[in-house]
Each structure stands twice: as C-alpha cells, then as structure tokens.
Amino acid sequence: xxxxxxxxxxxxxxxxxxxxxxxxxxxxxxxxxxxxxxxxxxxxxxxxxxxxxxxxxxxxxxxxxxxxxxxxxxxxxxxxxxxxxxxxxxxxxxxxxxxxxxxxxxxxxxxxxxxxxxxxxxxxxxxxxxxxxxxxxxxxxxxxxxxxxxxxxxxxxxxxxxxxxxxxxxxxxxxxxxxxxxxxx
Length: 185
Fold this sequence. Notes:
- The protein is mainly β.
- It contains two helices and nine strands, in the order αββββββββαβ.
C-alpha cells in the first residue's frame, strides 16, 4: 500500500489541472492560429502571490485596440492570467484570436527570458462602438475608428500582414483627438 502523502500528492497532481481555469494553463500554441492583433494602451494590474512567494496569477483591467481584418476597434478589458499584460511599446501588438466572438479574446503573452515561449491570456472585452484609442501628447484619447483606419492606410500600418511599423514615423500620429478617454474606476 502507498503511503498517504504519496497518494495525496498523486490525487492533487491528477485533479489540479481540472480545477484551474483554462486561461491559467500554459501550453505551446501555434502563432498562425492567432491572426488578430491587439495594441494595449493602458493596463492596471494586481499581482496575487502564491504561498511560495511566486506569482500565483495577475488580475487586471485595461484599454486597447483590436485590428481585425484591417479594421481597428477599441475595447476595454479585464483578465486573470499567469503573468503580467504589459502595455504595448511603440507599435507592438499581441497576437490574438477570438475565444467567444465579441466577448473573449485570447492573446499570447511572451515569457520574459524564454525566447519563443508564450502564455495564453483571456481578455474579457467590451467593444467600443465605432471608436478606437490613441495617445496624443501623453494622454489616452478616443477617436472615430474611420479616422484611425485612414491613418493606417496612409502610413501602411497593417500588423495582421507583417507591416508592424508605419512607413513614415514623422506622420505616425493619428489625426487630432476627439475626446479624452475617461479614467478607469
């Protein structure tokens, strides 16, 4: 007969993965399965530490733009993931795909210090109606998606097709802002 500790460990090892949300389980994913792009402008996070002192999970909220079939869409989001979701530097975007159309996006978050390694993170999204986010003079603002789309075409910014930088950085700021985005509660 097995010692009780060993048996308890075996039970935990078998059933623990079944208890964790699927977005907390890391696995190898094919980037080709993530055709959409997400640019994160703002992200507020709370780290939940585990008993051993490491990160257990991270809860957060934020604001971002989705590029889907060449169309920009602004959205607010919340998440619980294994790691931080950082705001996008410059024109960086996260690879993404819909888990539940117009409700849950899955993005690939790079693992620091491990080239080509990623964790999946599910974002619960609230799409903005016809608006996108952008920054102007350090402020996060909203503007009509149609104006942002014209800017994307003008500078040939199309991260879904490998055009990850505008062709002319001097013209890389979208048109004048429409409104300031309200601060997250």
